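Entry: Nuclear pore complex protein NUP96 C-terminal domain-containing protein
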Amino acid sequence: IESLEDVDETEKVHFLGIWKLVTSIFLEINTAADDPDEYNIVRRQKISEWLRMHSAWAVEKQLEVEDASVLVTIILNLSKHDIRKATEQSLVLRDPRLASLISTAGCHNHLKEDIGQQMELWKANAMDNFIQRDRYHAYELLSGKLDNVLTQYRLDWRRCLACVMWYEQSVVDPVETTIHSFLNFQRRGGGSSSVSLY
């Protein structure tokens, strides 16, 4: 840490964060040998804690320089997995339906499927044009359809990876599945071509 005294705050957060990530990745996990789901859940939790910590810092910095609407702030809070704050902000908008969906985000795959089916109905009936763009993106995020969301809100690679883990993948999927999905998103041209350290 002493060698980082002359480094600015952004680079310091990045370097220290990488060391914490290495710890999260290589930490020994003791689980029952015959239960791969338990291992995957514990490993995801470790990586998720690291992503949440870094995402919280990035969202705070982003909101300091942007005059974001409540809907954009909801999406940014979801990008750091702050379900409580995003739910409260939905209630500020007097939208209890969105608040109830956010409050259960990431809990069950069938909920994501239900939201996705509702969005398909809106699209089939040309109703999606009547929904605010940022509100629609919030629904996309909650349904695990991330391509539009991850490219619209200046999310760095960590928050993109976090959204894939928290909203697209199941809680028992291996971390490797999340990484492959994130890399596929990047190959399809998603995300910024020049990703900042933070």
